[in-house]
Specification:
Oligomer: heterodimer
Order of helices and strands of chain A: EEEHEHEHEHEHEEEHEHEHEHEHE
Number of domains of chain B: 1
Order of helices and strands of chain B: HHHHHHHH
Strand content of chain A: 15-25%
Helix content of chain A: 25-40%
Distance between the termini of chain B: 45 Å
Structural class of chain B: mainly alpha
Number of strands of chain B: 0
Helix content of chain B: over 70%
Radius of gyration of chain A: 18 Å
Strand content of chain B: under 5%
Largest interface: A-B, 29 and 40 residues
Strand order of the largest sheet of chain A: 1-2-10-15-14-11-12
Radius of gyration of chain B: 21 Å
Distance between the termini of chain A: 25 Å
Number of strands of chain A: 15
Largest sheet of chain B: none
Number of helices of chain A: 10
Shape of chain B: extended
Structural class of chain A: alpha/beta
Chain lengths: 337, 150
Amino acid sequence: MKEKVKKEQTVIFQNPPRVLGYYSLVGQKEGEGNFSKYFNQILKDDKFGESSFEKAERKILETIVFEAIKKAELEPSDIDLFLSGDLLNQIITSSFTARDFNTTFIGLYGACSTMAESLALASCLIDGNYFTKIACATCSHFSTAERQYRNPLELANQRPPVSQWTVTGGGCTVLGNMGKGHKITNATFGKVIDYGVKDANNMGAAMAPAACHTLLAHFKNTKTKPSDYDQIFTGDLGKLGSHILVDLLKQEGYELGENYTDCGQAIYKTTQQAYQGGSGCGCSASILNSYIFKKLSEGYFKKILFVATGALLSTTTTQQGESIPSIAHAVTIERGE
Amino acid sequence: MKQQLSQEQKKYLTYLKEKEPKTPILKSLIMAFLIGGLICIIAQAIHDGIILLFPALYETQVNTYMLIVLIFITIFLTGIGVWDEVGYLGGAGTFLPISGFANAIASPAIEFKKEGIIFGTCVKMFVVAGPIIVTAVVISVVTGLIYTIF
């Protein structure tokens, strides 16, 4: 067996895992946004025909997982590990979906960074020859996140201008050790960073330093610079958060230019009422499994960096006046033959 | 344990304060005045309407009936998902009149229906309005004491 290469936070894969299949599904509002033509499925009804929003979220996750497996031309029994996470308490969406999925399951919680976290972990497990085919999925739902983290839906209140809009939707990627799909060449795991932001509405500002930290480590360990990537995608920093990230990286001597996109800022049109932009696990997951992979297949991008960021807060810590710890994980994805 | 902020964190928070978009205060105030004022005009119209229909009622009775009608309208509009749009426009203007209180009770009651009548609707009904009720009770006790003593 070849020696594994790890430089501080970054793991460089010897046998890069390949993307076998992917699927994305979003709600109505996201379907009216900027990436509408790239999503596999757009819901007309945010309840997805279910009796509660929690059940609807679960159905979204089930749909994307089984459809992604179908796209990979596999059977659910071929998958030997299911890695998934979501925003709800005790990650119920993921574990309840795993209940109907006869395979080993590891539940993850990285808030909105879950997509990159699951891809990075799955890549390590595949490159290490422990597993051959892994389904990585995550999703979020505006209405379930709202009731858990904020106010009832029908409460007539105004949101602060720094707030973000939780994306209804999700994405699933099936990774495997064979095939000719896009490959994950390296991954940088993040550290938990806390710059003392206490405003739970302002998650972009809380997460930007974490994204900056992970990106700096990634550039240093892989000996690359921002211009080496066709596009750098961050998860859900929003308008304010992504401006802060550009500023923070500039101070460290890295210039993010035209090749930088924040999924949260880009997902909604400016005319849609979404304040700083989208957030939630489903934000980066749905864009990765639609726009990004499709553009890689078309050859529009050859090498991209996907950095999903997560704010690791809960309503309890916010009410007790604590600041928001944040994390970011990065994966480099290169176009397959 | 109190969190000690490092130099780096302090620098970031100062930077953030400048960068953050501010709430458009003047616009919010004008909108609150207009929407809040409109609600009050509607309430006055209901009040005058009741007097026209039932001239025999006492003034206090008219006021009570007016409040009941206003509360019904708000809860009805909350139920069909219109009132949150009014609140988005009006802000404090929609929250201050009794309509705001009605909405604060009705919205969690609808939201938590799925958890059952007792543990959902009944328990969660006061999550938003609870502090208002507690404050009102405490203030009336204090006022009552002051009134009795002097």
